[in-house]
From TrEMBL:
Source organism of this protein record: Acrodontium crateriforme
Keyword Thylakoid on entry: no
Record key words, sorted: ATP-binding, Kinase, Nucleotide biosynthesis, Nucleotide-binding, Transferase
Pfam families: Thymidylate_kin
UniProt-recorded name of the protein: Thymidylate kinase
InterPro entries named in the record: P-loop_NTPase, Thymidylate_kin-like_dom, Thymidylate_kin_CS, Thymidylate_kinase
Any one GO molecular-function label of the UniProt entry: dTMP kinase activity
Length: 220
């Protein structure tokens, strides 16, 4: 019997929504209970030369023009696109902490008139498309109560409020909504984890039963 392809599973949400916590738990769970290898990625990947430029920008130690930093975030995903595709073709499931949805909404939240959501999404077209995006939903105030936002460039309340609104716009868009499962991230860690596991089980079954190939991000 041919090996089943791996799945592309993405976590998204506001800062402090619990993405990294749930990503790590899902990776562990799939390694112990799944029948495939699991690769764990996060964006931005701060280890590459482009990722280091992004890191310096987020830390405030360098400046970048808005479009330039947007394209660097996107390039940082393209750097790994082939790695993701090869892993999935070889039967490895890839779990990703933030992906192109973050890329679109954080840049659009800057309110630069020539950087709207549609413009921001354009460089992402053609990237491997998630089989499921788990959107960890929490309001900005409750998220901030989890130890504060930190000191990086976008970690400000008004920016986070706009990001939440834009995530909402993306989630209901005709070409995105089928991939996205909204999880109530205000619950305790174990309850959220159970919801994540169930949503992932359904998504895996849907891909396997239809023998669905890995898709690419399409234009709106
Ligand atoms: N960005 C961008 O502009 N463009 C792009 O293309 C991409 C990103 C990919 C860095 O992201 C910034 O880059 C980010 C978006 C922008 N800017 N901002 N602002 P990052 O992913 O590196 O950010 P981070 O440092 O990992 O923080 P985070 O992702 O915001 O946090 P999180 O991963 O969602 O949360 P967590 O670390 O899992 O949990 C936070 C705390 O809450 C921790 O103490 C947990 O123990 C606790 N926690 C978690 N779950 C719960 C529950 N259920 N109950 C109670 N407490 C909880
Ligand atoms: Mg995180």
């Amino acid at each position: 019997m041919a090996t089943k392809r791996g799945k592309l599973i993405v976590f998204e949400g506001l800062d402090r929504s619990g993405k990294s916590t749930q990503c790590a738990r899902l990776v562990e769970y799939l390694r112990q209970n799944g029948s495939t290898d699991v690769k764990h990625l996060r964006f931005p990947d701060r280890t590459t030369p482009i990722g280091q430029m992004i890191n310096n920008y987020l830390a405030g130690s360098s400046q970048q023009e808005d479009h330039v930093i947007h394209l660097l975030f996107s390039a940082n995903r393209w750097e790994l696109a082939q790695t993701i595709e090869s892993a999935i073709a070889g039967g490895t499931t890839v779990v990703v902490d933030r992906y192109y949805y973050s890329g679109c909404v954080y840049s659009a939240a800057k309110q630069n008139p020539s950087l709207d959501l549609a413009w921001c999404r354009h460089p992402e077209i053609g990237l491997p498309r998630p089989d499921i995006c788990l959107f960890l939903d929490i309001n900005a105030e409750d998220a901030a109560n989890r130890g504060g936002y930190g000191n990086e460039r976008y970690e400000k309340q008004d920016m986070q409020d706009r990001v939440r609104g834009l995530f909402g716009e993306m989630r209901i868009h005709e070409d995105e909504k089928d991939d996205i499962v909204v999880i109530d991230a205000g619950k305790d860690i174990e309850t959220v984890e159970k919801c994540v596991q169930e949503a992932v089980r359904v998504a895996i079954e849907r891909v396997d039963s239809g023998d669905r190939p890995l898709r690419r991000v399409q234009p709106w």
